[in-house]
Amino acid sequence: MQIDIKDLKNLVNVTLVDVRELDEFEAGSIPGAVHLPLSQIAQDPGAASAKIPQGCTCILYCAHGMRSLQAVNILRQTGCENVSSLNGGYALWCTYK
């Protein structure tokens, strides 16, 4: 359900999903990430899960990993099994790269 930053660097066919709010996303994000805030996921989990690409691994991230873990739990309840949370979130990614 969680993935470490070092393992993320080795994945292929992965979609990154930023679950932070718009102001956080606009302030900086992992290149190529799509934006799907936790607030939208919580409000309408079914519609949110329809936006998650199938056939690839989806790594959700937030600032430090707590909101993305919540998002993963919500999405998995809708049957979306290809989602994981980035342990440490964007903050760790910024220091790791």
**Count of DSSP strands:** 5
Work out the count of structural domains. 1
Structural class: alpha/beta
**Roughly how many Å apart are the termini?**
22 Å
* Biggest sheet architecture: 5 strands, parallel
Provide a count of the helices: 6
Strand content: 15-25%
Instruction: Please give the CATH architecture.
Output: 3-Layer(aba) Sandwich
Give the SSE string.
EHEHEHHEHEH
Query: Helicity level, as a percent range?
Result: 40-55%
The CATH homologous superfamily is called Rhodanese-like domain
Global shape: globular
Largest sheet strand order: 1-5-4-2-3
Question: Which helices and strands occur, and which strands form pairs?
Answer:
Blueprint: E1 2-3, H1 5-8, E2 14-18, H2 22-27, E3 34-35, H3 38-43, H4 45-50, E4 57-61, H5 66-77, E5 83-86, H6 89-96
Parallel strand pairs: 1-5, 2-3, 2-4, 4-5
Describe it for me?
The protein has 97 residues and is an alpha/beta fold. It has a single domain, classed as Rhodanese-like domain (Oxidized Rhodanese, domain 1, 3-Layer(aba) Sandwich). Helix content is 43%, strand content 19%. Strands 1-5-4-2-3 form a 5-stranded parallel beta sheet. The protein starts with a strand and ends with a helix. The model has no long low-confidence stretch (mean pLDDT 94).
